[in-house]
Write a structure and sequence with these properties.
This protein has 335 residues and is an alpha/beta fold. The chain has 11 helices and 12 strands. The strands form 2 sheets. It has a 6-stranded parallel beta sheet, covered by helices on one side. Strands 7-6-8-9-10-12 form a 6-stranded mixed beta sheet, with helices on both faces. β8, α10 and β9 form a beta-alpha-beta unit. The chain starts with a helix and ends in a 13-residue tail after the last strand. 43% of the residues are buried.
C-alpha cells in the first residue's frame, strides 16, 4: 500500500479507502490509485482485512440441488442482491439428494466453510428428508433457509406453495372441470409435497374425486411420460402440473396423441419460467417471485450479520396466477 501511495502521489489512507470501496474519494484520485494498483500488481489482502475488521464480506450459498430452474433463479437473485450490498457469494452444491449421504455431504460443506471463513450461510434446502432439524448447523454463524419445509428454528424464506397450488386448482374447477389431475414433482421435494397436499386438500374439501397422482422429477422428459399416461384416460380433462418444465412435456404428449389443448384438456403449470409464454399454446401458470425470495433471504442474513435481531420462522412470498391460452371453459361436449 505504501508503494501504491507513492506511485499515485496520495496518502496511504486514500489508498485504503479506494481498496475498501469506501467511496469518499474524488473520482480522478480514485482512478489514479486504481491505475497505480494495476501497474504495480497490487491486490488488497482480503484475509488480512477480515482479521482486522472481523468481516469477510462473503456469504455462502449451500444448495442441495443447484440445477433446478427454481434454485437457479433463486441463486441468481441472491447473487444480485449480495453484490448490491457489497458481499461476495460462494456456492457449494450438495450432490446427494438426502438421507445419510446427503447429511455426510452437508457435513463436508460445513467443514469447508469453516476454512473459507464466511459471514453467514443461506441454505437452499429443498429436500423433505434432509431438513435443517436433521443437519448440524455451525454455531455462531448466521443462517437463513430457503424452501425450509417444516423447520422453524431459523429465519426462512419460501414461496407460498399452498397458495399457488390452490390458485391453479380453483382456476380449473371454476372453468367447469369436474376434478383436477396432478403431475407432481419428486417426493423428496418440499415444494412438490406442499403443492400436492394443497391440491388434494382442496379437492377433498369440495367433495371432488381425487385422481391418482402421476409422479415426475421436474424434467420435461418426466412430464412427457406423465402426459402419455394421462392421454390414455378420457376423464383427465384438467391437469395441474407441478412445474412448467414438466408441463412442456405434458403438452407434447397430448399433441402427439391428437388431444387438443385447451379444447379437450386444460393445463396449468407452476413457476412462470421465461419460456412459458412461448409454449404452444402459451401456458397458464402460477408465477413465483424468485427475485423477491432471493433478495429477502439476503436482507435477513445481512441483518443477522450486522447484529440486528431477526426472528425465526418462515417469510412467505406470494404467488400469482397468470392466465394464458392452455386453459378454457369446459363442458361435457368438450369430450
Amino acid at each position: 500500500m505504501r508503494d501504491v501511495a507513492e506511485h499515485a502521489g496520495v496518502s496511504g489512507q486514500t489508498v485504503s479507502r479506494v481498496a475498501n470501496g469506501m467511496g469518499n474519494v474524488a473520482k480522478k484520485t480514485q482512478e489514479r490509485v486504481e491505475q497505480a494498483m494495476a501497474e504495480l500488481g497490487y491486490r488488497p489482502n482480503i484475509a488480512a482485512r477480515a482479521l482486522r475488521s472481523g468481516e469477510f464480506r462473503s456469504i455462502a450459498v449451500v444448495a442441495f440441488d443447484a440445477d433446478s430452474l427454481g434454485n437457479v433463479r433463486t441463486i441468481s437473485a441472491i447473487g444480485n442482491e449480495a453484490a448490491r450490498r457489497n458481499y461476495a457469494i460462494e456456492l457449494i452444491q450438495i450432490q446427494s439428494a438426502g438421507g445419510a449421504s446427503g447429511a455426510a455431504d452437508f457435513s463436508w460443506a460445513m467443514r469447508r466453510l469453516w476454512q473459507e471463513a464466511v459471514d453467514g450461510i443461506i441454505l437452499i434446502l429443498e429436500t423433505t428428508d434432509a431438513t435443517a432439524a436433521a443437519l448440524r448447523m455451525p454455531d455462531n454463524v448466521p443462517v437463513v433457509i430457503v424452501d425450509a419445509g417444516p423447520d422453524r428454528r431459523y429465519p426462512a424464506v419460501d414461496a407460498h406453495q399452498e397458495q399457488g397450488a390452490l390458485l391453479a386448482v380453483d382456476h380449473l374447477l371454476e372453468l367447469g372441470h369436474p376434478t383436477v389431475w396432478h403431475v407432481a414433482g419428486p417426493a423428496i421435494s418440499n415444494a412438490a409435497a406442499a403443492r400436492r397436499r394443497a391440491w388434494q386438500s382442496r379437492l377433498e374439501g369440495l367433495g371432488r374425486v381425487v385422481p391418482p397422482v402421476v409422479l415426475g422429477d421436474w424434467t420435461p422428459e418426466s412430464g412427457y411420460r406423465a402426459g402419455l399416461t394421462l392421454a390414455e384416460n378420457p376423464e383427465a380433462t384438467a391437469v395441474f402440473v407441478a412445474n412448467d418444465q414438466m408441463a412442456l412435456g405434458v403438452l407434447r404428449a397430448f399433441h402427439e396423441k391428437g388431444i387438443p389443448v385447451p379444447d379437450r384438456v386444460s393445463i396449468v403449470g407452476f413457476d412462470d419460467m421465461a419460456e412459458s409464454a412461448q409454449f404452444w399454446p402459451p401456458l397458464t401458470t402460477v408465477r413465483q417471485q424468485f427475485a423477491l425470495a432471493g433478495a429477502t433471504a439476503v436482507a435477513l442474513l445481512v441483518d443477522e450479520i450486522e447484529g440486528r435481531e431477526v426472528a425465526a420462522g418462515i417469510r412467505r412470498i406470494g404467488t400469482e396466477l397468470v392466465v394464458r391460452d392452455s386453459t378454457q371453459r369446459w363442458s361435457h361436449d368438450s369430450r
